[in-house]
Design a protein that fits this description.
The protein is mainly α. It is built from 8 helices and no strands. Helix 1 packs antiparallel against helix 8. The two termini are about 25 Å apart.
């Protein structure tokens, strides 16, 4: 019957298999992003890779604990998963709560910290010129003459090369919302995993010797 020992065990195993798949995806994205130079910011790549490895280790711990019905493994798995739930739920809510003004401030700080080669890559990918008038007075952007020439093919027609903040605004907002909703979804799966682990730990294995629980 669902809710019994076997059902709880299989559900917990399936949940951890899902986490292992997600961990492989995170690790693969980090490795591919670094190899293909899609991401030049090493802390971002390192953060994604670290999340994948940590999730992998936790999932293996939970998988072994579920298969063996090991009380100690399940206890540490439950505690770590609950802490992850608190952190991820808080971060997800923060991502969803960031307004456009705060997103602009974060983008400005990121633009100022980046090297010229990264700024140049952004300008080429998004076909934009500089960040905005305010930031460009503090940080001189890379040369964007080639981008202007590409956008303004007709010398008679007056054209405007948009700044990068105009192009990035929707992308940044979409990224925050996407990360927030995905984080919120996985945080609730982690909370369900905690509840499932608590239930599973308190259930007796029907195949075990009843005297072992005395």
């Amino acid at each position: 019957m669902c809710g019994g020992f076997t059902c709880s065990k299989n559900a917990l195993i399936a949940l951890n298999v899902l986490y292992i798949v997600v961990a492989f995806v995170l690790i693969g994205v980090a490795v591919y992003g670094r190899a293909a130079t899609l991401v030049t910011n090493l802390p971002i790549v390192g953060g994604i890779l670290a999340c994948g490895i940590i999730l992998m280790l936790i999932s293996v711990l939970g998988l072994l604990g579920a298969v063996k019905h090991h009380q100690v493994m399940l206890f540490f798995y439950m505690v770590i998963l609950f802490l992850l739930f608190l952190i991820q739920f808080s971060v997800a809510c923060a991502c969803l709560g960031v307004n456009l003004e705060q997103q602009t401030q974060l983008a400005e700080e990121g633009w100022k910290r980046e090297k010229n080669i990264t700024r140049s890559n952004v300008q080429n990918v998004f076909s934009c010129c500089g960040f905005d008038q305010k930031v460009d007075k503090e940080v001189v952007p890379p040369d964007y003459t080639a981008i202007e020439n590409r956008l303004c093919v007709d010398p008679i027609t007056t054209c405007h090369c948009p700044n990068c903040m105009e192009k990035l605004q929707n992308t940044i907002n979409y990224a925050f919302k996407l990360c927030g909703w995905i984080g919120l979804f996985f945080s609730f799966t982690e909370f369900m995993g905690v509840l499932l682990t608590v239930r599973y730990r308190n259930q007796k294995d029907p195949r075990a010797n009843p005297s072992a629980f005395l």
